[in-house]
Amino acid sequence: MGDYVYPSLKSRIKTEYKIYLLALLFIAAADSIGQIQIPLGPGKFILFPIFYSLILGILSGPQVTKIIGSRQVKAASKLVIVAICPFIAKLGINAGASLEVVLSAGPALILQEFGNLGTILLAMPLALLLGLKRESVGATHSINRESNLALITDMYGPDSPEARGSLSIYIVGGMVGTIYFGFMVSVIAVLGIFHPYALGMASGVGAGIMMASATASLAEIYPAMADQISALASASETISGIDGIYMTIFLGIPLCNFLYRKLEPKLGRIADQRVEKRVKGKGDRS
Fold this sequence. Notes:
- The chain is mostly helical.
- The chain has 14 helices and two strands; from the N terminus they run αββααααααααααααα.
- The chain has helices spanning about 10-35, 50-60, 70-75, 80-85, 85-95, 100-105, 105-110, 115-130, 135-140, 145-155, 160-190, 195-205, 210-220, 225-285; strands spanning about 35-40, 45.
- Helix 1 (about 10-35) packs across helix 3 (about 70-75).
- The longest helix has about 60 residues, at about 225-285.
- It is globular, with a radius of gyration of 21 Å.
- It starts with 8 loop residues before the first helix and ends with a helix.
């Protein structure tokens, strides 16, 4: 943290000006492109502006064009929590304004948040088998959008492995999650297992761009129910944003920590042995 303490605001801007200029440039470019919708069977792929921004950020990094260096990348990672503060404030405002919606919602909308906890049971073992350590707690505790990233950063600190895991999934979710949601909901809708209203409710997982991607595909498949699906998805999204953070604090993170303590000694050893074999194999070839 000491490397990023500056004597003045002028000194900070002089050191990090490239980050701010590139961020404004990427925002302008992404906003000018807008959404791109690609028909796919009964549904569609939807590319959102955040997807282009992330791609541009990767291309400008030290591993590709080297427009910005490693030090600036590390400095930018600490600015993420600052940048999402307006979203957290908006979440609090929405929570206060939507209390009536929460109280009047049926049990299906309120209890659906427990379904999000079920993904931890699948994601945590996979993360440990991939070789993640404490990063797995941040990566698997939730869908990892703005509020979740802010929560993990507040609980564990911006330099913690948990924060790195959460930030990684936040980025991957912005790039791949929106495409995946639009495709996944199309496939499930075609199977005819669930009612369109249930699919609309399930779209509101706490990520606005993912909800938009899913509901856009559902609207193409069920045009006569588009308004009802959108209303249910919006209500579900609002409730997920409000009660989801409490579910994460009191259930999601404790469950991740419990599974980590129980599974890491065994699954972590398997991952470590696989890495050792890979390293040994490369040494033998050389």
